[in-house]
Amino acid sequence: MSSQVRGGTRWKRFALVMVPSVVATAAVGVGLAQGALAASFSVSGQSFKVSTDKLVGKDFVQYGSVAVGKDLKGNDAAHPVAVSGFSSATITNMCQSVVTPNLPFGLGSVSLQLSAGTDPKKPVEATNLYLDVAQLDADAYFENIDIGVAAGSVGKPGIQPGTEKAVNPNGFAQRAETATLSNVEQTAWATTAGTFKLSNLSLKLHKGVKECF
């Protein structure tokens, strides 16, 4: 049976050549739209971009760590990151994007873009949220901040479970009762959460490069 053709693209063949990480991200996004589920976004061998209008988090902690995984060729890969953790957070107008380059059959680059929390009255909600960040630009406001604590004593939510060996417990860290980040643009290697509820979820694929910022 021949592949179905729409708009000049052979979609069956397209589905076969898309990297599993992008397909997994799409599947997780659909699942999260149905309720609050345990979530983990990690794009193997690729960083991804996230932007939000506003993130308000409780029990903010931040410390240095190493994100460890596999690159696109299956080799071990490690990236230094600043981990931001929150016991709970609300996120308004979230956008997440990842670009898969150099696809065969003349497809070139394909971008996956996910948006949620576009209604200010129905933001994205997360618990035990950890962001492995390579770069962050934002306007930040902290309440009851404590700078220069040891990473091993940051308090709740604490060091991300399962990553303790990648963290120097005596390394520099900071914490705050509340953190409010506005106009956020970040490049990350991983995002994990105990629960992640996405209202007004929209997931789209675009030919070419189409990122959140």
UniProtKB/TrEMBL annotation:
InterPro entries: DUF6230 (IPR046198). This is DUF6230 family protein.
